[in-house]
Design goal:
By secondary structure, this protein is an alpha/beta fold. The protein folds into three domains: about 5-70, Archaeosine Trna-guanine Transglycosylase, Chain: A, domain 4 (Roll); about 80-180, Transcription Regulator spoIIAA (2-Layer Sandwich), CATH 3.30.750.80; about 200-395, Rossmann fold. The protein contains eleven helices and 19 strands. Strands 15-14-13-16-17-19-18 form a seven-stranded mixed beta sheet, with helices on both faces. Helix 2 (about 80-95) crosses helix 4 (about 140-150). It is globular and about 70 Å long. The mean pLDDT is about 95.
């Protein structure tokens, strides 16, 4: 395959030689290789300013990140063969780590397949294509997944906002076989069913698997509150790990149907209570009713989606964690999580400390958690590390 060239300005190759995969539009020599000469999804040979090839990129000419490195070997453009190889490499890691075939199989740049995310639920695959290059090669993606995994069904879950920047339409569609509305998974020995068609993202959040496993020593025999519970990833596992009672709060009726469904799968119906409504309003009502909990889990959706949201987002995290602390018993445990990539872990820690001091309480940090190894971090791309989880103990002054 003969590919056009995309040439960089002088010294713009340093970051890529050091391991990064992204090219920004202001790094391209647009006189030598105009970006408007490319169509979204084209592949090109990336060249240093002197003309030396650096690898093959997928081009998104209208995006700030206008190209992503697909291969450093010019003999291997993105095609079915490369996809099969990279999927097998990713699969070998997950099979080493997890007994059940339930995990994030492909995590974009970190698995050297930028723009591709695949979650596996036994023999069902849910796929997100977030780049024009992956969208153009979706039949190759499908063929490679079917060849390697032999799934019963594959779902395109292409309804994320990431596609907007690529000029791609949003859609949800069955790509292969049969995909039911709810699919099964197993995590930390607990059974779940999740709504892959109508649920959030791919239907489940595998990224907190290890942090949820660490709940076990904190919740046994305790009363637990799970805020922003979704379908019970934290709450149902807390009950399975021996909590005496778990209250799950979420604004989505579908999510709370999932909590009840998953409680039933594990014989935990008697331990779970669901509360539908705005989480902050529910916290106010619980406080007014003088309800108290031994453990509170606060794992909200991303309050900071863009850098310009930072100030308001930090205020939201402060408000949530401070109000959660008000519901804790004197020797209570707070699990505070964030999926906002723009919120550094140290800032979350400072928010927790400030909240505790505002309530005249002492704080002990017990554990820090990150995303699981099926969400590997690319060492040159800090954006691939986004999950934070801090387990802390709140004590009287």
């Amino acid at each position: 395959m003969s590919l056009p060239s995309l040439r960089l300005k002088a010294n713009a190759d340093r970051r890529l030689r050091a391991g990064h995969l992204w090219v920004y539009s202001n790094e391209v020599d647009v006189v030598a290789t105009p970006l408007n000469a490319f169509q979204p999804g084209d592949q090109a040979i990336l060249e240093a300013a002197g003309g030396k090839p650096l690898g093959i990129v997928g081009v998104s000419p209208n995006n700030l990140i206008c190209a992503r490195l697909l291969s450093r070997d010019l003999k291997h453009p993105l095609d079915k063969s490369l996809l099969v190889h990279r999927i097998n490499v990713a699969l070998s890691l997950r099979e080493r780590l997890f007994e059940a075939p339930c995990y994030r199989l492909i995590y974009g740049d970190s698995d050297f397949l930028p723009g591709l995310v695949v979650d596996r639920f036994f023999d069902i695959l849910v796929v997100q294509l977030a780049s024009a290059t992956m969208e153009r090669h979706r039949e190759d993606v499908l063929a490679a997944l079917v060849q390697v995994l032999k799934p019963r069904g594959v779902l395109w879950k292409n309804d994320s906002s990431a596609r907007d920047a690529e000029g791609l339409e949003r859609y949800v569609d069955t790509a292969f076989g049969v995909v039911p509305e709810w699919v099964a998974l197993e995590e930390n020995g607990v059974k779940f069913e999740v709504p892959v068609l109508a649920g959030q993202k791919t239907g489940w959040f595998y990224d907190h698997r290890m942090n949820r496993a660490r709940l076990a020593p904190y919740v046994k025999g305790k009363r637990v509150l799970d805020l922003f519970s979704y379908v019970g990833g934290w709450g149902v596992q807390a009950a399975a790990f021996g909590a005496s009672e778990v209250m799950c709060v979420d604004a989505s009726a579908l999510a709370l149907d999932g909590v009840e469904r998953n409680a039933g799968l594990n014989g935990l119906e008697e331990k779970l209570i669901t509360v539908e409504g705005d989480v902050f309003e529910a916290i106010r009502e619980l406080k007014a009713a003088e309800e108290r909990f031994d453990v509170v889990i606060a794992d909200p959706p991303a309050f900071i989606k863009r850098k310009k949201d930072l100030k308001n987002g930090e205020a939201a995290y402060r408000r949530l964690n401070e109000q959660a602390m008000r519901l804790l018993n004197k020797d209570g445990i707070l699990v505070s999580a964030s999926c906002s990539m723009h919120l550094p872990e140290d800032d979350l820690q400072n928010i927790l400390l400030g909240s505790a001091r505002h309530l005249d309480r002492n704080l002990q940090l017990l554990e820090r958690g990150a995303q699981g190894p099926d969400h590997p971090v690319h060492p040159a791309i800090p954006e691939t590390r986004y999950i934070k989880s801090i387990t802390c103990r709140l004590l009287p002054s």
